[in-house]
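TASK: fixed-backbone design
INPUT:
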């Protein structure tokens, strides 16, 4: 059967409740303050998970269908398009998890995110810095197949972008791509996995960037 483009490429779908990526929650819990705005919250899975862990969370998104599900799960939300309905420095931290790669005009969004944050803005995006090498070696990863990505970031470009708004920016390559994933469950698979876990081998490719951008104190 001949398969179509739509069989492989599709729009990025927000995380559902109970199916969210737990590394994002750990990242937020490490760096975020006690009051959090999940900007581009989708179904509200991350805001709800952080609220369950003791944070005060609010969600914003442009998609009403997403927000209706977030409300069902108990996350307070607001529908927004451009200007956020909050005063300056309302929240300790603002989350932009897998958001800015989908937004063509990202500067107004970042202006608002940093305006309402007191402490920092936390950002995650797919990492495109080794795309050419990965293509040459027939390696890709799922999030790069989202058809609605309009911006592609490496560590340098993400740092430069956020530095226009923040006093300090820290970008970490994370979510490594391990070569043993491409080997069947056999002796080489378990051997390579053991070597990486022991730190004797280091991953070369990383699928995401995690950024902490500290708010300027004017």
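OUTPUT:
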């Amino acid at each position: 059967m001949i398969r179509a483009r739509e069989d492989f490429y599709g729009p990025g779908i927000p995380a559902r409740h109970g199916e969210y990526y737990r590394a994002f929650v750990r990242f937020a819990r490490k760096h975020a303050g006690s009051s959090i705005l999940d900007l581009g919250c989708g179904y509200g899975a991350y805001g709800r998970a952080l609220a369950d862990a003791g944070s005060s969370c609010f969600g914003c998104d442009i998609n009403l269908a997403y927000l209706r599900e977030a409300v069902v799960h108990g996350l307070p939300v607001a529908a927004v398009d451009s200007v956020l309905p909050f005063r300056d420095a309302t929240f300790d931290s603002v989350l932009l998890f897998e958001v800015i790669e989908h937004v063509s005009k990202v500067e107004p969004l970042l202006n608002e995110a940093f305006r309402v944050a007191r402490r920092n803005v936390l950002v995650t995006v797919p990492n495109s810095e080794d795309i050419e090498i990965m293509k040459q070696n027939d390696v890709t990863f799922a999030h790069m197949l989202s058809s609605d990505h309009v911006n592609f970031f490496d560590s340098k470009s993400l740092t430069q972008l956020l530095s226009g708004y923040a006093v300090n920016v820290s970008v970490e390559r994370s979510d490594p791509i391990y070569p043993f994933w491409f080997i069947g469950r056999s002796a080489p698979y378990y051997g390579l996995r053991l070597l990486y876990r022991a730190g004797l081998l280091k991953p070369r490719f990383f699928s995401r960037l995690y950024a902490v951008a500290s708010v300027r104190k004017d």
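COMMENT: The chain has a mean pLDDT of 86.
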